[in-house]
Structure formats: structure tokens, C-alpha cells
Amino acid sequence: MSAWRDGIRRVNAAPAVLVGVWALTLLVSLPLGVVMRGMIARHLGRSQAAETAASGVNYDWMQEFAEQASGVGVTFKPTIIGFGAVLDNLSAFLDNTPRPTVIVAAASAYIVLWILLAGGIIDRYARDRATHAYGFFASSGVFFFRFLRLAAVQWIVYAVLFGSIHPLLFERLYPRLIHEMSVERTAFFTRVALYLVFGILVAGCTMIFDYAKVRAVVEDRRSMLGAIAGALGFIRRNAGAAVLLFLLNFALFAIVVGLYALVAPSAGGTGLSMWLAFAIGQVYVAARLWVKLTFWASETALFQERLAHAGYVARPEPTWPESPAADAIQP
Amino acid sequence: MRRARLTLFVFALAGSTVARAQPGTTGALTPPLSPRNANYTITAHLDPATRTITGSEVIVWRNITATPATDLQFHLYWNAWKNTRSTFMREAALSGGAAEAASRSADEWARIDVTTVTIGGADRTSSKRFIAPDDENANDETVMSVPLTQPVSPGGSTRIEVAWTAHVPRTFARTGAIGNFFFIAQWFPKLGVLQDDGWNCHQFHAGTEFFSDFGVYDVALTVPTGWPLGATGVQRERRDNADGTTTHRYYQEDVHDFAWTTSPDYLERTARFEHPSLPAVEMRLLLQPEHASQAGRHFDATRTTLKYYGEWFGAYPYGHITIVDPAYHSDAGGMEYPTLFTAGTRWLAPPRVATPEGVAVHEAGHQFWYGMVATNEFENAWMDEGFNTFSTARAIAQVYDPNYLALRYFGGFVPHLFKDIALSRETEGNRRAGYRRDAKSDVPSTPSYKYFPATGGSITYNKTALWLNTMERWLGWPTLQRIMSTYFEKWKFAHPKPDDFFEVATTVAGRDLDPFFDEVYRSSNVFDYGVQALRSTREGDQYHTTVVIRRYGEALFPVELLVTFTNGEHVSEHWPGTERWKIYTYDRLSPALSAQVDPNRVLLLDVDFTNNSMTLEPKGGPAATKWSLKWTVWLQDALLSWAALL
Does A292 contact B418 at a Cβ distance shorter than 8 Å? Predict the structure, then answer.
């Protein structure tokens, strides 16, 4: 619990990190949002159908749009409205629903950017004091290629999970389990059980990779395989604490999603209400990011706590040359 | 045998006496409502352990055509699911059914084997053969022909005795078993329909359903004791046997098919439909335990059908109806049989979402369009499915408006209601989106079984519903209601063809509707009218407004043009719509605000309604901004979902 509280404190103490990753999320999304806007505007043109589309939902028009849409446009469906968006994405995640190439490309770019920033973020939380932009980006740069190597391992593991284990569970085992099942409720709980199995596998892997990153940063590890082995060792020795911490963080995620279910804006109109709805959406996005950062910060805090070295980071804090004159110094 | 016949005779006499007052408790109808020329007395035994049915039947068939019958043709529908070589399975593969078929074990396929055929006392078993009148597929065994030693002349009758065994499949086409749930339809050797030009006895096709003559069904079914059983007709007798089985005897007059279901899990509920001017109907519901709380919704939906279809088209005369709530995963839902239908609901069924109401109203509605007006579903499937889709949407709008869009997540289990999206009768009720996608896929006048299997439904159901609703908006509901009720009254308990409906429609409407039917029935042309240009330019102290409207599609329909000016003035024009385009000009003190083709949206078949209007004060920009912002939040959430793996 102390690591969890400490993690929350560390995230709250570094609001710039949260703002930064929120801005990153927005910046990756906006170009595609602009593309989508152009598609919608072109399809509506000067049609009066836009009036009902602007004031609420013109479902008939939405279906006409969907039928002619291509690329990113095929994702424009009623499910984007309000809490439907969250359900759609969570469901797609758990059901391993394929997404259009352009969305996969955006997600890939987003993940690469996260890999770039991860070193700086964990370093900031590990030191538990301001590292400023230069310290942040210096650490980001130092760990980028290490984390890229780690990402290669992650990619293989997740490819096995989503490419082999998921189909095994949901395309082979699940149909067999419900083959002669004639009660929907039983089939649903069977599926929930498989979601739990798959979720635990994914969560377990995520936890290992999280601690691998933490150990890489705190102990300045260069071998990512070594970091993974270290993470496994740490989790094994501190299984109760690591799992409890994960569950607490997951509870935060559930709370954020639950709160958004209560306030998620409906279709609404244009003008101020449109921007207000977008703002609520951004608060939700920021809250989700805050939870993600809390995962990393609290895991860092736990690791340091168990080492009895709060705030310890093996690598010296990066410093910037004090003066441009330093560049002029000849050896 | 003699005693049995005497008992039957006495029973029938008693039944006919009671029938006048209580058709709902006897299955008898006096006087006869139909020709009753194909009468079946069937005895069958179900062994759930081996999923086997052993049956025998006596058919008394009368030739009501002007042509002598030289052979008899029987449907053996279950042979369609014998292997992948049948015409049904080949067609199913075209619409993506191959993978499902490949995953079946040997025990999950079906078959029906006729063991003996006796006609007029002569054993004709050795002369039976399979024929494939539709595609000459030598591997199709869904139609059996038995030559007659002596033709049955017009007006003549013959007695046919058939014995068979059948294996119940894992559900195909809403027929079969899962766990201990059994839904048994198209299960006995059934005669085709003899017409003046010969037998109408098609092979079983993946995209179409059935066609048979009216008659009296007297069916004794033996199933394990304690298993509730529902069937066409009413139960006249139940007898517990010494071997742990129970025999249920069901009886119904003036129907053209017989289906039944049994499962130890069924809950049974009853209710009654009453109406000041329509006959009362006893409703029996066989319900899955997990849907116990939804019994009222099933009854309400059935009442809705009996009331509105009864008021609009004609009364339901049978006095009873059985509603079957099929087991999850059985794929038996959403199907109609005389006096019995399968609905279909979900464990999580939020209110204000038309599940189970939509399917229950639709399938109950088939009692009218299929059950009584018994069109040929092989050749003119649109005449029951399309009429009924239209009628369903209209009935749903009377009682369940608004109902909302619900999407299901997490393996299709968890519903989420979108209260922003109230479903419209005209578009969602008539399934416009599906029609628009497949609008040109087939000409409706093509025999339905020849439609492309993957898209045939869009023509059968959607296009027909849309053009009927277009007729309603064009001619007015009172006229269309008179057309449909006249057609119903004239053709109930008979087999009308498309021209029979068109003839009634033209006569009742008092105008030539053939050009319309040419477009919607005899062609695959699409309707698409739109505003191509709208301009208002100042000329002196006036504004010169130009509107160009265009016919983008090939199909013709007269449309209105509504031009609105900024001072609130409206000008309405009537355009026959036969030319490719037309220009209208106006000189007014105010500039135009908008122009709209078909402003009242009469022509529901128009495949692109977005292009029907144009305004000089467009809102496309703000609307696009609003929706792209919403989409951006969805995308951000999607990115976060995957970033969770980091």
C-alpha cells in the first residue's frame, strides 16, 4: 500500500509528465481526426442532412457514410459515441478484434513514442525529484534503444499471446466448451473465465516488462534479457506485494472507467457543448494516462522500497554543459 | 385398426362440434377454411440419446388441379444436411457457411431415410428415386419422386403410407438439437404442391424456405416423460407409456405444415389475447428458464401482432398460438410455422431495445403472411418475408416507439444502449442499409431460390418492405391498408402469385401501378434523385435562384422539389422524374436557403438521401467537427488500450 501511495504521490508531483503524455496522445490522434473531419465534411457537403448530424445523430446518414467509407472512415460508427467508445475498445482488446491498418499504424507510432519517453518517465519517478527537460530527454535517449530491444521481446511475447494463445482460448477451447451449452448465462461466464485466464497472462507479462523497465532504469542495466530475468526474480521474491500493487492499480483503472461511464457525453450538438464533450473526453484520457503512469511510478517505488533505497538510481543524473564555451574547449 | 378409426371418427365429430365455439382448444375449424387436400396423420418417436426419429405417416391427398398426377413428389428436406454435396450446402458455402460445415462431426449431420412407401395399397418403395428439378445436382436427395401405377385424375384422391427414420442434426436452418433442446421442423416426407403445370416441388435451397398445401394434421409424438412439448395445433391427448415415454397427440385443421419442439428445460406460461372485434387467442409460451422474467415481453409482442395485423389485414382464426423461446446457441430462433413460432431473446435484454419484441412480432406476423396467405417461398419469398417485414416495422412503431440501438460487446454478450439513436420504422425497420448495399444484386422477379445466397435477403426482405412503405407514403395508408386487407381476404388459405397481388393493388388503388411494380419488382434499377446545384445571385433588386435536380439512378419515380427562401417562402414543384435532370429558376426578393428533392421522403428506396438536399447555409463543417472530435476520443481510447501492453 505504501508503494502504491508513494507512486500516486510521485505521479502527482510531476504533472508535466502527465501533461506531456496527454499532449502526445492528442498529437498522435489529431492528424487522423483531421482526416476524419475532412471525410465527413466532404460526404455531407452542403446537404441538409448535416443539420440533424450537427444537432444530434443522423443514423441514416451515418450508415450512408459508412457504406462509402474507406481507410480510417470505416471506423466511424455509432460505437464512438460516449461510453460506447470505451466498451468498443476494451471489447476489441479482449476479443482481439482486428483494426484497420491505419489505426494499427497510428497505434504503432504511438507505442514507439512511448518507448522513447519511457526511460525519461521512469527515471523521473525513480529519482523522485525534478529532472527538468534536459534530464528527462537525456534519460529517454539513453534508454530508447535498450527499451526498443525490450520491445522486440515484448512484441514476440504478445504476438504469441494474441496470435496463438488467444485463438487457442477463444476460437478452439471456447467453442468446444459451449458446444452443447444451451444456457446463455453459462456461456457468458465461461467466456468471462477465459477472459480472466487471458487477462492474467497479459497482466503477468505486462508486470514482468514493467519491472524490467524499472530495473533497467534504476540499476542502469544494459542487457534487457538480464532486466527481464531480474524482473522475474523480483516478482518471485515479492509476489504478494507485486500482485497486490497491480490489483490496486487495476482498481484505479476500473474506477476511472466506471466514472467515465457515468459522465460520458452523448452525441450532443455543435458549438460549446461539442467542445465541452471533447473536454470531458480529454479528462478521461488524462485520467487513463494518470493510471498508466501510476502503474510505473508505484512499481518503481516498490522496487526501490524493497531495495531500501528510495530515490536511488544507479546512473548519475544527466547534466547539461553550463556554458556554450564548454563546446569550445579543445582537448 | 377399425376401433381406432371409429375412435377417431367420434373424436372428430366431437371436435367439430366444439370447434365452432372453441377453435383454440380443439384445432378444429368449421366450416373448412382451406381446400384441405393434403391431410397427414403422423406417428413419430424421438430417441434423444441417439437423436433419432422413427416415424410413419398416412397422407390422404386430393388432386385439386386440372391435370392428372402421374407421380408423387415429396420433400425430404433433411437430406440437404446429409453432406456438403447437396444443393443447400453448396449454396450455403457461397454465403460463408463452408467453415461451419467443415467443423461438424459426423453425428451432427442429418438424414432422412424413407423405408417404405405404399400408394393406394401398393408397395412402391422400390420405384422411389431422387430428382433434382432445379439444378440437376445428382448428389441432392431432397426431392423424392414415386411414379404412380395409376394416375390420380383431377378431383381424385389417393392414400399414401410412408415410413421413415431420420437423424436429428445439430441445428441447420433453425432445425435440430443442442443439448437436450430439440426443435423439429420440415421433418417428415411432405408432398410438394401439384399445380396445373405440374409439381412444384423444389429442392431445398440455402436462401429460401417452403411451400405446401393446406390440410389437416393429426400427429402423435412420443418423447421422454416430463419433457414439455409444443407443436402446431392443440394437444388433444397425452398418454404416459410404460417405457418412460409420453405420447402427445396434436391436431390442427387448415394448416400447411407441422413443427414441434421438446426439452426438459422449458418453463410453460399461458396468457390470452382479447380484442373487441377479433377472436380471442390462447397463447402458450415455452420459455427458457434464464428468460423467465421476459414472459410478459413475449406475450405483449404476440398481442401486438394479433391486434394490429388483425385490424389491418384480417383476423387470426385458429384461437391459439404457441410461442417458443429457443435455447441459447440453438440457432432455432426467428422462424415461423403454422400456429407456432420461435422468437429469440438474450439473457441480457434491456428494455427499450426491441429484443425479443422485434423477432416475436415478425414471426407471429408470419401467421398472416405465410401461414394463411400461403405464397410460394421458394419462388416468391418476398411475398411473405417482405410483406411481413413491412408489417412488423409498422406494428413495432405503434407500440415500441421509441426503441433504441443497442450494440453488443465482449463476445456479443454485453449490450450497450445508445439513447441518442432511436431506430426509425422507415429506415431501420425496413432495413434500408442492407438494401442499399445489395440493391442491384438480383431482380426480384427472379425465382427467389435463384437469388445469390449471400445477398438474397436484402431483396426479399428489405427491398419489398421499402417499396411497400413507399407505397404507403405515396398512396396513403388507408389505400395501402385496403390493398393489403383485400389481398389478404381474397387469398387467405390459398397460394397467390405476384400478379395476384399486383392485380388487387391496381384495382383497389384505382390507378395503374404497373410502372412502379416494373421498377421495384421487374428490375434491379435503383432510385437516386438529388440536387445537383443550388445558386442564388443578386440581379438588380432581386435574387436569381437556379436549382438543378438530377436523376442519378435508372429507376423512375415522380418526386417533389421543395425550394425554401430565406424569407421563409416555400415553392414546391412536381417532377415526373423521367428526364435525367431538370432546371428550375426563380426570381425573388430573397435568396434561396435550400432545395430538397422528395422532402417528405416518400421514396424510401432512394439509395442516397444525403444528396437529396442542398443548402446555402451548410452545417457540414460544424457537424464534421463535432463527429471528428468524438471519433478522436475513441481513437485516443483505442491507443491507450494498446499502450497498456507497454
Answer: no
